[in-house]
């Protein structure tokens, strides 16, 4: 579960939600351990994206991105700061939010906490639905 969630949180495609539901279906008594493993793995994957964004600052000048097609997204991350990372679980935009958080150098500890909360709530909801439909 951990590795599936980690890969799904990076820029690679993955379906950790389906994996979590299937594993809960196989063994309902381990649901909490599966949720914790998924949350930690997915959070660490997002932090990897954060650091890729941070490292990207060395490859391109900040001015190059602030005037390009990412200008609006960067402005949103700068406006809402770490709070925007509560949506890091969202498909498509979640990876971009983490990448841009690193790009604009949001505080890593606060960013990690917000990512962890958002992803943890998502996995708890998926676990609850999986347990309900058994």
From TrEMBL:
<dbReference type="InterPro" id="IPR051311">
    <property type="entry name" value="DedA_domain"/>
</dbReference>
<feature type="domain" description="VTT">
    <location>
        <begin position="27"/>
        <end position="128"/>
    </location>
</feature>
<protein>
    <submittedName>
        <fullName>Membrane protein</fullName>
    </submittedName>
</protein>
<feature type="transmembrane region" description="Helical">
    <location>
        <begin position="109"/>
        <end position="131"/>
    </location>
</feature>
<keyword id="KW-1133">Transmembrane helix</keyword>
<feature type="transmembrane region" description="Helical">
    <location>
        <begin position="80"/>
        <end position="103"/>
    </location>
</feature>
<dbReference type="InterPro" id="IPR032816">
    <property type="entry name" value="VTT_dom"/>
</dbReference>
<keyword id="KW-0472">Membrane</keyword>
<dbReference type="Pfam" id="PF09335">
    <property type="entry name" value="VTT_dom"/>
</dbReference>
<feature type="transmembrane region" description="Helical">
    <location>
        <begin position="31"/>
        <end position="52"/>
    </location>
</feature>
<keyword id="KW-0812">Transmembrane</keyword>
């Amino acid at each position: 579960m951990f590795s599936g969630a980690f890969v799904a949180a990076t820029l690679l495609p993955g379906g950790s939600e389906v994996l979590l539901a299937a594993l809960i279906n196989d063994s309902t008594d381990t649901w909490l351990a599966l949720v914790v493993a998924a949350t930690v793995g997915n959070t660490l994957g997002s932090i990897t994206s954060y650091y890729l964004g941070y490292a990207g600052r060395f490859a391109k000048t900040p001015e190059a991105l602030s005037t390009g097609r990412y200008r609006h997204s960067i402005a949103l991350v700068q406006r809402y700061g770490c709070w925007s990372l509560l949506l890091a679980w969202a498909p498509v935009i979640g990876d971009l939010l983490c990448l841009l958080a690193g790009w604009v150098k949001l505080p890593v500890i606060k960013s990690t906490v917000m990512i962890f909360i958002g992803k943890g709530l998502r996995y708890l909801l998926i676990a609850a639905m999986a347990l309900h439909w058994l």
